[in-house]
Design brief:
The structure holds two protein chains of two kinds. Chain A is mainly α. In chain A, the strands form two sheets. Chain A has a two-stranded antiparallel sheet. In chain A, β2 and β3 form a beta hairpin. In chain A, α1 packs parallel to α5. Chain A is globular. Chain A starts with a helix and ends in a 14-residue tail after the last helix. Chain B is mainly alpha-helical. Chain B has one domain. Chain B is globular and about 55 Å long. In chain B, 45% of the residues are buried. The chains are: A mainly alpha, B mainly alpha. At the A-B interface, α4, α9 and α11 of A face α5, α10 and α13 of B.
Chain lengths: 300, 323
């Protein structure tokens, strides 16, 4: 029983990281109806930006919450800027192109970032500096709550609440929702759609930046291809919850995190990737728009 | 361009090409030529689903993997014909590989082809990954160590002709189907699903048919690939391989058979052509250039190289008129 509780804690911690990345996918999909395959590589660049800044500042000497927050900020800035550049130079010229072209471009950008990463950073894995010390914070009998898990949970919760506030309560958030529901009408009502789309990319990418530092802290091995699998899973999480839906992305990510942890614990660790996709397929067949997505019937 | 309509003439043309490569180039180039043939099969078969039927599949590598493993296992374990007829035996096994992949395509396609657009892409991606992970866990197929000791066809010319036969079967099957009433069914699904349904076309059936046929040839491509490399492992059939197939289709122009072939040649040869650059600069910039070229191509020529036209259409348009 206590094993089970322990796995739930680990699963939620993993799921909240997936959620941060899944949010970026879902926001971009909500507003542009495109799968931004490059998102996972933006996340990779964020991890490397944090790595180099941490080395440069000698963060390892003073681990603690302050240095973590600073690295998160650095990574958010780097990712946000990169997201802006990608949107401006790769996706904006294709705003009216067929869907498949945009998708191929996204894959192209993703490959470009991966391979440039291998050229610039080197293909060998690097060890992420120790940002915080990991210790057991609380114990309930045999169940332990580690400081890392709590930090991951806390930071991602704060980031998600900020996002919720931004989207629901601010003017720019309202514009984002407007563009997402109908870009043409929004532009007629005076919303600068290009600006809002760019802003969405910046916000989504900086959330991936937060995720990258948290992952770097928890699993301290980074390499230029680290984004691939985690990005795919985060994307699956976004689809699972109903892509384009913010709450759905978080729900989907938690399901993914928990199920992955359970599969590794009780079945076989080699099957965990297959299991993630298995859940997705089953859900999409029975509920084609995801758990919280609205299924719209096409009208002529 | 008459040979495009006559399989035997096309076979002779391919054989002549094979002879040139056989005597004019070294083994390295010959291997690349064989990979070009495999990729041609992949891009032509995916073109049937992506280009003609307008359904977006991202799991082609999975079907290729099934074909490759089927061929690898049967051809190294089973012998039912005398040695002199070994090629015929290989042909049967590769046909079987195609059937195995087609069966998988049917199982995957039946539920998932009810989905549309991006969702279909994700589900097929998911199935591709599941097939790969399942292969990783099958110990009798080598698991992550891969499967080695697959018999080869022998000299280059034999492999080339063997693959050419399959290329022609694939080309003419798809070409004839697309220009039949079935093909018009595929096209109508691509152009407007609702209108097609209103005209009495069972759209799901059309999609599943296209998908199964496409999986069949992907399985054949996988089988040939297994014979050519003599070693396969689940990491040969990753998501990137599926993406590569999609890139070939889009680059060639959706719904253009000859475009798919030209794109397959380009995509396979380009990284190799850029190899001298690597010697010059000392760093591996090949894939960086490749991905940049892809992005620029999509921005500057979104309809692909041929954009729905066939080589023969262009021939008629430019060469005949000026003559």
């Amino acid at each position: 029983m206590h094993d089970f509780v322990q796995h739930i804690i680990n699963g939620i911690s993993l799921g909240s990281i997936y959620a941060l990345i899944a949010l970026g996918y879902t926001m971009v999909y909500g507003i542009l109806k495109m799968i931004n395959f490059a998102h996972s590589d933006v996340y990779m660049i964020g991890a490397f930006a944090a790595y180099y800044v941490a080395r440069w500042l000698g963060i390892e000497a003073q681990p603690g919450i302050a240095s973590l927050l600073m690295l998160i900020l650095v990574s958010m800035l780097a990712c946000g800027f990169l997201g802006f550049l990608i949107e401006r130079f790769a996706y904006r010229p294709l705003r009216k192109a067929p869907k498949l072209n945009i998708l191929i471009t996204a894959i192209g950008v993703s490959l470009f970032l991966q391979y440039s990463g291998q050229v610039v950073f080197g293909a060998d894995p690097k060890v992420f500096p120790e940002v915080m010390t990991d210790y057991v914070l609380l114990t309930f009998g045999p169940v332990e709550l580690r400081s890392f898990d709590l930090t991951v949970l806390g930071v991602s919760l704060v980031a998600m609440l900020c996002l919720e506030f931004l989207i629901k309560k601010t003017k720019v958030g309202r514009a984002m929702r407007a563009v997402s529901s109908n870009a043409l009408v929004a532009s007629m009502l005076g919303v600068n759609t290009d600006k809002i789309i760019a802003f969405t990319f910046v916000v989504g990418s900086s959330l991936a930046g937060v995720g990258s530092v948290l992952v770097g802290m928890k699993y301290p091995k980074i390499d230029p291809l680290m984004g691939m699998m985690i990005g795919l899973k985060a994307f699956v999480a976004a689809v699972l919850g109903g892509i384009g839906n913010i709450g759905g992305a978080v729900l989907g990510a938690l399901i993914m995190g928990l199920s992955e942890e359970m599969v590794v614990a009780y079945l076989s660790s080699t099957y965990r990737d297959a299991f993630a996709f298995g859940i997705l397929i089953v859900i999409l067949i029975f509920k084609p728009a995801g758990l919280l997505g609205k299924y719209s019937v096409e009208k002529v | 361009m008459g040979f495009l309509k006559r399989p035997f003439l096309a076979f002779l043309a391919l054989a002549a090409l094979g002879l040139i490569v056989n005597f004019g180039f070294n083994a390295y180039i010959q291997l690349i030529v064989l990979f070009i043939l495999v990729n041609c099969l992949l891009s032509m078969s995916l073109n049937l689903v992506n280009g003609y039927t307008g359904q977006f599949s991202l799991g082609h590598a999975g079907f290729m993997a099934i074909g490759a493993y089927f061929t690898a296992f049967t051809s190294s374990k089973i012998h039912f014909l005398p040695d002199s007829l070994q090629l015929l035996e290989f042909f049967v096994f590769i046909f079987g590989a195609g059937l195995a992949a087609a069966l998988a395509g049917f199982i995957v396609g039946l539920p998932s082809l009810r989905l549309k657009g991006d969702y279909l892409a994700i589900v097929t991606l998911g199935f591709g990954e599941i097939i790969r992970v399942a292969l990783l866990n099958m110990d009798f197929l080598g698991g992550p160590r891969g499967y080695s000791g697959i018999p080869s066809f022998g000299p280059f010319m034999v492999s080339f002709l063997f693959a050419s036969v399959w290329i022609l079967i694939c080309f003419f099957t798809i070409w004839r189907i697309v220009h039949s009433s079935h093909g018009r069914g595929f096209l109508s699904v691509r152009e407007d699903e609702i209108a097609a349904e209103a005209m009495g076309i069972n759209t799901t059936e059309m999609k599943v048919k296209a998908f199964v046929l496409s999986s069949f040839f992907a399985g054949v491509a996988g089988g040939l690939f297994a014979h050519f490399t003599a070693f396969i492992s689940p990491s040969s059939f990753t998501f990137l391989q599926s993406v590569n197939a999609v890139i070939m289709v889009v680059l060639g122009g959706m719904g253009s058979m000859t475009g798919a072939i030209v794109a397959a040649v380009l995509i396979t040869a380009l990284p190799e052509l850029l190899r001298p650059l690597q010697d010059l600069t000392g760093i591996d910039l090949r894939m960086v250039i490749y991905s940049l070229a892809l992005i620029l191509m999509m921005i500057l020529r979104p309809q692909g190289l041929f954009g729905g036209y066939e080589l023969t259409d262009l021939w008629r348009k430019y060469v005949r008129r000026s003559a």
